[in-house]
Design goal:
Elements (H helix, E strand, L loop, with lengths): L6 H5 L3 E6 L1 H12 L5 H7 L1 H9 L2 E5 L1 H7 L4 H6 L1 H4 L5 H12 L4 E9 L5 E10 L10 E7 L1 H22 L4 E5 L5 E4 L1 H11 L9 H4 L6 H12 L3 E9 L2 E14 L2 E11 L1 H40 L10 H24 L5 E3 H14 L8 E7 L3 E3 H21 L7 E10 L2 E8 L16 H12 L3 E5 L4 E7 L4 H6 L3
Parallel strand pairs: 12-14
Antiparallel strand pairs: 1-2, 1-5, 3-4, 4-5, 6-7, 6-10, 8-9, 9-10, 11-13, 14-15, 15-17, 16-17
Helix pairs in contact: 3-8, 13-14, 14-16, 15-16, 16-17
């Protein structure tokens, strides 16, 4: 009876078996006789030789733990199904065992994975020892299997957990890092790693303190980490730092990680809200500007309503001999002129100025459409250059154009006479020039502009005075009114010397 076949061996907690490897020794000797010296290379290219050696192994005895681990009931069953213990994916390991035996080594140890008879994956530490006195014949070898399946499963579970944890923090766009009690970096997530590669140019990160890696941090950060390690409480702060020439606003959240009741690490999550801060500042600035503009609009509306009231009151002294319907139409057109200015003003980004050329083109077209009798015979021509003026000046120019163009359409082309009206606008050397000219019947000789008692032309002169403008009349070929003024606000123009 073998020395291993006793009760101590049978009940031993470590899986044990005794193998007769004399057949393996003879096979290796035959290969050596053929001149084979590199057994690793030989077995790597001759898997059939590996299978032959496996078939020459003879299991003499095995204890209870070994049979249970392999999933069999008897030694004979193990011998009959030895290929289960040595599947093809274990060939590299068995190849190493054979190479060690051929080189004269008497011990070998390595980790091994196999599937038992029930198909369960088992991880073991495989150890083979040739019994003393059998170093040449290999007739007695002891095999032991230490089951480390639970440890391997735990390691794999831990590895998967770490991968999941790493994948999770790498998917977060916030900057995340983990430090120990000495504020040394143990881990950084993908976002922070990319930022550091961009700004630190491959500078070593892990193992260095946060103050070495982030030299721009204020000294208060050190005391904050000390507080979290001491109290174990989450700390949230907002910071504004200059980072490589840029002002960065961020929220920093320091979260303690406990081990055995004490804080061993701190997870730091940094959220950059610089863009949000800039947007808030722009919003506050915009709101302040809107409040100022709203007050300005209310002020302008009040002034313009007063202007409309004056425009409606002024025709009273001229109304005795005039057509009431014409007076109402003229007043309606003057009010519409002010309304068109406001319409353009509300659509513009700049509430201080109006693009005059577009406004005059629209206004002239609107006035022209209000005289349907002239549409077929009179052509309206424009030569307008882009000119921007303050709102008050635009209103004056609009009302002046309204009075002159209306007057031209009423009187310059009697008896359905055909003709042309030209409107020019330009700006040169700081002066704006607006011209309204027609080729109509013209004005009688000896006509003096300031001697007229017409409400419309007197209104033109009054508005020209407000603009501090020079107005000229040329009656040599039809009628041409020329207005020249500087692009200033009405208050500035009124206060300047004439």
């Amino acid at each position: 009876m073998s020395t291993l076949e006793n009760s101590t061996f049978w009940d031993f907690p470590l899986a044990l078996c005794e193998e007769d490897l004399s057949g393996v020794q003879q096979y290796l000797a035959a290969l050596q006789a053929r001149g084979i010296t590199d057994f690793r290379a030989y077995f790597a290219t001759h898997p059939q030789a590996l299978r032959a050696c496996i078939g020459k192994m003879k299991t003499v005895s095995a204890n209870r733990r070994f049979l249970s681990l392999v999933g069999i009931d008897t030694v004979g069953e193990f011998q009959d199904h030895i290929d289960i213990f040595f599947p093809p994916d274990t060939y590299p390991l068995f190849q190493e065992v054979l190479a060690c035996l051929a080189e004269g080594r008497t011990e070998y140890e390595s980790e091994w994975m196999f599937r038992n008879r029930q198909g369960q994956v088992k991880h073991v530490v495989f150890r083979m020892v040739l019994a003393p006195g059998y170093e040449v014949s290999f007739a007695k070898a002891y095999l032991s299997l230490l089951d480390i399946t639970e440890r391997k499963n735990a390691e794999e579970a831990l590895r998967q957990s770490e991968l999941q944890y790493r994948s999770t923090i790498d998917s977060i766009h916030d900057y995340i890092h983990v430090v120990d009690a000495d504020c040394r970096l143990l881990l950084v997530n993908q976002s922070l790693g990319d930022w550091l590669k961009k700004n630190r140019k491959g500078y070593p990160i892990l193992g260095r303190t946060v103050f070495e890696v982030f030299p721009f941090l204020p000294q208060t950060v050190r005391s904050e980490y000390e507080q979290v390690f001491r109290t174990g409480q989450i700390l949230v702060t907002e910071e504004c730092n200059e980072v490589y020439g840029n002002i960065i606003h961020c929220e920093t959240r320091k979260i303690p990680v406990r081990r055995d009741g004490t804080v061993s690490r701190v997870i730091t999550i940094i959220r950059d809200f610089t863009q949000r801060k800039e947007m808030e500042q722009k919003l506050h600035t915009s709101l302040a500007e809107k409040e100022i503009l709203l007050r300005e609009l209310h002020h302008r509306v009040k002034n313009h309503l007063e202007m409309i009231g004056n425009l409606l009151r002024l025709p009273e002294e001229y109304s005795r001999q005039a057509d009431p319907a014409r007076i109402l139409a003229d007043c309606r057109q003057r009010v519409k002129t002010v309304a068109m200015i406001h319409d353009r003003l509300y659509q513009a980004r700049d509430l201080d100025e109006v693009e005059l050329s577009a406004f005059l083109r629209e206004l002239a077209g609107d006035i022209f459409q209000s005289f349907p009798a002239s549409l077929g015979q009179i052509r309206l021509q424009f030569q307008l250059h882009p000119v921007s003026v303050p709102v008050d000046q635009a209103i004056c120019c609009g009302i002046i154009l309204n009075e002159l163009l209306s007057n031209t359409l009423q009187h310059a082309f009697p008896e359905q006479r055909s003709g042309e009206i030209q409107i020019h606008l330009s700006q040169k050397q700081g002066l704006i020039t607006m011209v309204l000219a027609d080729d109509g019947v013209g004005i009688p000789k000896g006509f003096y502009l300031k001697s007229l008692k017409s409400f419309g032309l007197n209104l033109v002169l009054s508005l020209a005075h407000q603009l501090a403008a020079e107005i000229k009349l040329d009656a040599s070929r039809g009628t041409a009114f020329t207005l020249q003024f500087s692009p200033r606000k009405i208050a500035e123009a009124a206060s300047s010397p004439e």
